[in-house]
Write a structure and sequence with these properties.
The protein is mainly α. The chain has one domain. 76% of the residues lie in helices and 0% in strands. The chain contains 16 helices and no strands. The chain is globular and about 55 Å long. 42% of the residues are buried.
Length: 351
């Protein structure tokens, strides 16, 4: 069953990301790291779209697992038809970037080891009693958020805060645990740090390459300095380094170290150039992914995207950019409206 975990977290993001990036023709993002990150964001967004209705309608985790897995298979099969066109390009790029990836891989492994083996005991108490317990209860009972994580007794959906029911990242960890057979705690503490830390550095490396005009030596130096800062930066739970290395499996950590940097990097490049519907569609995907980890993503992500669009729009005197950015924020606006009227919606549905 571990093979399924490898396919979902390893192969599927690469296939999906390759499909998305090649369709957008973003040459400056055509590298394996950004493709993997793009693919993961697509997977999280698709899971969010399915998980919220399944949660509110009180469907089982097993049903969600079957439906999402089938959708994932369809997307991956479609992507495999496209992967042949870019396979040779990908091999050439990996060889050209070998020196960058060797250095980055060493420091990423060092930080993964720090995250998995060297965290002090106190960090295993706070949020774990809520998040990991809720995710594990979902696996054990096959019911999404219908178990009180304090007492273990059955509860109604109205007893659960919408900050959980309107996000899906916790359920995503339950899904991964279900298909792999791993305990949620093991999955979150050993597997997810590898994925999240790797994605974070893929984005930062892409930023460095763009910032330093693809200068390999400067990019490597940037990665080294950034790695050192992160390793010694977890002195407070308000730092980005803390979210990266101490609790990288949490939804708010994913938002802070992966999704927001991805949106910043992608939108800053996108809004200053000519773009089309395919490029804007990827912004929508990332915005939905931002909402999957925490409800704060419905506020922080739109604010950042709109600020970038405002700067680019006024500079270029192309105010359609601001309008297009606003359209991309509609999914987050809808979720915020549902959040504010959550009680009335549940009453209307009779849940």
């Amino acid at each position: 069953m571990i093979l399924w975990l490898f396919l979902v977290l390893g192969l599927a993001p690469v296939l999906i990301g390759s499909l998305m990036v090649s369709s957008m023709n973003k040459k400056n993002q055509r590298n394996l790291g950004m493709e993997y990150t793009t693919g993961m964001l697509v997977m999280l967004a698709v899971f969010q779209v399915f998980a919220i209705p399944f949660t509110i309608l009180k469907r089982s985790l097993s049903e969600l697992t079957v439906v999402y897995s089938l959708v994932l298979v369809v997307i991956c099969v479609f992507a495999m038809l496209n992967i042949r066109k870019v396979y040779k390009t990908r091999i050439i790029q990996i060889k050209k970037r070998a020196s960058i990836w060797m250095i980055a891989f060493f420091f990423i492994l060092l930080q993964i080891a720090t995250s998995v083996f060297l965290n002090p005991d106190y960090v295993y108490s706070g949020d774990d009693t809520t998040y990991i317990t809720m995710a594990n209860d979902t696996v054990e009972t096959d019911q999404i958020y219908l178990t009180d994580y304090l007492t273990g007794e059955h509860c109604s959906l109205g007893d659960v805060s919408p900050k959980y029911t309107l996000t899906s990242y916790l359920i995503f960890t339950s899904y991964l645990a279900k298909i792999s057979g791993l305990h949620v705690l093991v999955l979150c503490k050993t597997v997810m740090p590898i994925v999240v830390i790797a994605m974070a550095y893929c984005i930062w490396i892409a930023m460095a390459e763009e910032l330093f005009k693809w200068d390999t030596e400067k990019t490597i130096f940037f990665v080294i300095v950034l790695s050192i800062l992160n390793i010694f930066g977890s002195f407070s739970n308000y730092t980005l380094s803390f979210r990266l290395l101490v609790c990288s499996w949490q939804g708010k950590a994913l938002l802070a170290v992966v999704i927001l940097p991805y949106l910043f990097f992608y939108c800053w490049q996108l809004f200053w150039k000519k773009y089309g519907g395919k490029q804007l569609f990827m912004v929508v995907i990332a915005m939905i992914a931002a909402s999957s980890g925490t409800v704060f993503g419905n506020g922080l992500a739109p604010i950042m995207v709109l600020v970038i669009a405002l700067i680019a729009g006024f500079y270029k005197k192309d105010y359609k950019t601001i309008l297009h950015a606003g359209v991309c924020c509609i999914p987050n606006l809808v979720l915020m409206m549902i959040y504010m009227e959550y009680g009335h919606i549940l009453a209307w549905l009779g849940v």
